[in-house]
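Dear colleagues,

I hope this message finds you well. In preparation for our joint manuscript, I am sending the AB hydrolase-1 domain-containing protein (Shewanella sediminis) sequence together with its predicted structure, so that both groups work from identical material. I would be grateful if you could confirm receipt.
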Amino acid sequence: MTEKIQVEDVDVYVEGMGDETIVMVHGWPDTYRVWDKQVEVLKDRYRCVRFTLPGYDKSKPRRAYDLKEIVQLINTIVDTVGNGKPVTLMLHDWGCFFGYQFYMNYREKVTRIIGVDIGDAGSKEHVLSAKVKAFMFGYQMWLAAAWKIGGKLGDAMTRKMAKLLHAPGEPGSITSSMTYSYYWKWSHVLTGRSLDHLPLEITCPLLFMYGENKPGMFHSTPWVEKIASDKRNRVEPFQTRHWVMIEAPERFNNIMLDWLGKKD
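The corresponding structure tokens are as follows:
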């Protein structure tokens, strides 16, 4: 049975009756449905909480959100659904960036994290080749421009890039309203303004899964080696692209359930 509750004009879906709550945060250009395969196997043992990021729901007004707003939204959701207990986070893509920043600000509210395909991207240790830098800059600036242009053209630009990047979402659900994060990021970077994010330092248990079949990694080698050196953590590469949980759901779910089942 699925319970739908309203938190700050965001529809939050709660499934499962377990004592432990897992809050799932997706990225671009997805919705809460990107976690369907995971909820199927988790809901018998865990309380699964998911929502579509603000601005990503085409039925809602189009507007940009900054980092502080989304971190505070996650905080409000955790306070609403967590029953006074810390939660597990399951994160992907921009959901990793937002979820990691939530953790950095509210460590006491998180017991452990499952991060998918995004690590310490943008850190000093995250060194990329010129070719990979050009690729990442190109697609992200394209999406930033799609936000600025908006309308039918902006939507068409967003869907074209989603197709090129093999995004699994339904094309009809993908619009330029989902690309404000790229505009926010690059409007700050190119004008020398700070993103106001905290350096990533995860000290709670972390399961990190990532795809190897893509132009470049969103994590550095030193970071992933440090994560793997902690016996509470686990690092698993996959022969997939960016959407690991969609492209290899069976292996993803087996590793996820095995790691979640191990207590400190």
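For the figure legend, we might mention the following. The CA atoms of residues 168 and 246 lie 8 Å apart. The chain has one domain: 2-127+197-260.

With kind regards,
E.M.
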